[in-house]
Design brief:
- The protein is α+β, with helices and mostly antiparallel strands.
- It has helices at residues 27-33, 42-59, 84-102, 125-152, 155-162, 167-176, 186-190, 230-235; strands at residues 17-24, 63-67, 70-75, 113-120, 192-205, 210-222.
- The chain has a 6-stranded antiparallel beta sheet, with helices on both faces.
- Helix 2 (42-59) crosses helix 3.
- The longest helix has 28 residues, at 125-152.
- The radius of gyration is 21 Å and the shape is globular.
Length: 240
């Protein structure tokens, strides 16, 4: 019967970095069930940020990036000998379990995440995360736009009005009605990042009878991400 497991030997390319991207399954329905505040529910984002920290500490990625119900991890040390089925199933189930653990509610239906693996070349890392950060901005504009319109019109009318509008047109509509997206919190526009930082620690060396400086790493949750650049990813050690 082992022969029937036709996908179990599928592996990612050797010696390659990979991105694992997770998406919440049917989270529009989940948001309604949980009565999340729109366009952004602060508690939801706190939970997602804690899920990302759990992923970071469990799988040791170079960087974790999240917005909405989407999470991207980039790894250079690929777990489970690169087995695609194993990586996808374990990471997705771990994410869902962490989400439930941190979200202190009684769920009417178990939440789930899907997972996909993207082998990525060094030169494409910045392109990938810029692509996802651009999507974060589009999500921000559209979320604020539809929330504003639904405060003025019925759901169907609001959906009709926003359909076909370009991003800059939604941005201008909001601005003309007193909502300046430039003034909102950075994480809503650019997402949240998890990565290692180093802090300076000064201790006393008894043997040499002097103060001694060392550096220790810690996991940092960045709610004030810049627009992604090559310099940023070099600084945090994602690219060389």
């Amino acid at each position: 019967m082992k022969d029937y497991e036709v996908y179990s030997s599928l592996k990612v390319p050797k010696n390659s970095k990979i991105v694992i991207r997770l998406d919440g399954r049917s989270f529009h329905k989940l948001a309604s069930d949980l009565k999340l505040v729109k366009p952004y529910d602060e508690n939801f984002y706190k939970v997602i940020s804690m899920v990302c920290r759990d992923l970071f500490e469990e799988f040791s990625p170079l960087f974790v990036y999240t917005f909405s119900d989407e999470i991207s991890l980039i790894l250079d040390n690929v777990p489970f000998e690169g087995r695609v089925e194993k990586i996808d199933s374990v990471v997705a189930s771990f994410t869902a379990s962490s989400f439930v653990m941190h979200y202190d509610v009684d769920f009417t239906k178990p939440p789930a995440f899907d997972s996909r693996i993207i082998p990525i070349a060094e030169g494409d890392i910045l392109k990938y995360f810029r692509w996802r950060q651009d999507e974060c901005w589009r999500n921000c504009v559209n979320s604020h736009g539809i929330t504003y319109l639904k405060s003025k019109y019925s759901n169907s009318e609001a959906n009709d009005k926003i359909n076909g509008l370009k991003l800059n047109e939604i941005h201008e509509l909001l601005f003309q009605n007193g909502i300046n997206l430039n003034d909102i919190e950075t994480y809503k526009k650019r997402g949240i990042g998890i990565y290692r930082k180093h802090k300076e620690v000064v201790g006393f060396n008894k043997k040499e009878n002097r103060n001694q400086t060392s550096y220790r790493s810690y996991v940092h949750t960045d709610w004030e991400l810049p627009k992604f650049t090559e310099e940023f990813f070099k600084k945090i050690g994602v690219i060389k």
